[in-house]
Design a protein that fits this description.
- The protein has three domains: about 110 residues, Rossmann fold, CATH 3.40.50; about 90 residues, 3-Layer(aba) Sandwich (Rossmann fold); about 70 residues, Orthogonal Bundle (Arc Repressor Mutant, subunit A).
- Helix 1 packs parallel to helix 8, helix 4 packs across helix 8 and helix 6 crosses helix 7.
- The longest helix is centred in the C-terminal third of the chain and has 17 residues.
- It is built from 13 helices and ten strands.
- Strands 2-1-5-6 form a four-stranded parallel beta sheet, with helices on both faces.
- The chain is α/β, with parallel strands linked by helices.
Length: about 325
């Protein structure tokens, strides 16, 4: 009888460990895994952290220190720290490395499979925007606006007013007001917790997804892909399967392949990724995805997520 092997993963964050604001939501998605947590600022002296405060409007990152306080640091310094950490952790026998952070544009080259938080988020938002959905993005700092302008997301409503007071919960109400016209709201920082997402959802009346949920869902799919077979990964949040179960029945039943494609699409996976996972071409994915949307009378994954989140579980 084959013994199930528990995946071993490294979770890399931008600040200092431990990160009680990040790990619970990620681990709820990943299920039964062994993990080690690493922070790009672990071991960095306080004097250096103070010295690396950004100047003027240069690109910067907001992150959390071990004592729970938040700091804003110049992006170049954080990027170099993160790249050095990834190089150290790579090759230590992990099944997967997870960059549980957003904003980092560098692409570390690793021997170990890597889930890159920012590029995962980019792919997820692009997939939703493909249906001409209005995506609202709440992100930490004004300097990060330029990074979004370089991506062809479609219709965006952006807000950078959620951290003016120095932490993720500050001025969140103002941020909500700025994105309330969106079809779906993405909270683009791993520091935005599930509780904050619930606050945004209650106030805006719109479905809300956190960066942690997007990154965690992608990591779960990558673990299954690495194993070459479905892993017994329990989840305590809305996966694609759970969202599909919540949708009202289609006028015409979905085929098995249409359902498989839709599950991945609801988790924000791009067509090429879905194709690799299912062993079919991205063009075939497009066909199954279009047919599923037609049967459900929807024009985008964002619309389906909205329906699912406003339905009682069946």
């Amino acid at each position: 009888m084959e013994t199930k092997r528990t995946p071993r993963i490294a979770i890399i964050t931008m600040g200092q460990t431990p990160r009680p604001d990040v790990l619970p939501e990620l681990l709820a998605l990943l299920g039964d895994v062994r993990y080690d947590e690493f922070g790009a600022l672990d071991g960095v002296p306080d004097a250096i952290i103070v010295e690396k405060a950004p100047r003027a409007d240069e690109l910067s990152f907001l992150t959390r220190l071990r004592d729970g306080t938040h700091v804003i640091l110049e992006a170049g310094f954080v990027t170099r720290q993160t790249e050095a950490l990834v190089e150290t952790v790579d090759g230590q026998g992990y099944d997967l490395l997870i960059l549980a952070m957003t904003g980092l544009m560098a692409r570390p080259q690793t021997r170990t499979p890597l889930v890159h938080g920012q590029y995962t988020l980019d792919a997820w938002i692009s997939a939703l925007a493909a249906g001409n959905s209005r995506i609202g993005i709440i992100y930490p700092l004004t300097s990060q606006r330029s990074a979004f302008s370089e991506n062809d997301y479609g219709t965006l409503l952006q807000s950078s007013h959620a951290t003016i007071g120095g932490h993720h919960g500050t001025h969140l109400a103002d941020a909500i007001d700025r994105v309330s016209g969106a079809d779906l709201i993405v909270m683009n920082s791993v520091g935005y917790t599930a509780a904050m997402a619930q606050q945004v959802a209650r106030t805006s009346g719109k479905p809300v997804v956190t960066a942690c949920r997007i990154i965690g869902s992608t990591a779960r799919l990558r673990l299954a892909e690495i194993a070459g077979r479905p892993l017994d990964l329990s989840a305590k949040t809305y996966t694609g399967i759970e969202l599909l179960k919540r949708l009202p029945p289609a006028g015409e039943p979905l085929t098995r392949r249409e359902s498989e494609v839709l599950v991945h699409a609801l988790e924000g996976a791009a067509n090429k990724f879905i194709g690799r996972t299912l062993g079919i071409s991205h063009r075939t994915v497009e066909i199954h995805r279009s047919r599923a949307m037609l049967k459900l009378g929807a024009t985008s994954a964002a619309e389906l997520i909205w329906r699912a989140l406003t339905q009682s579980e069946r």
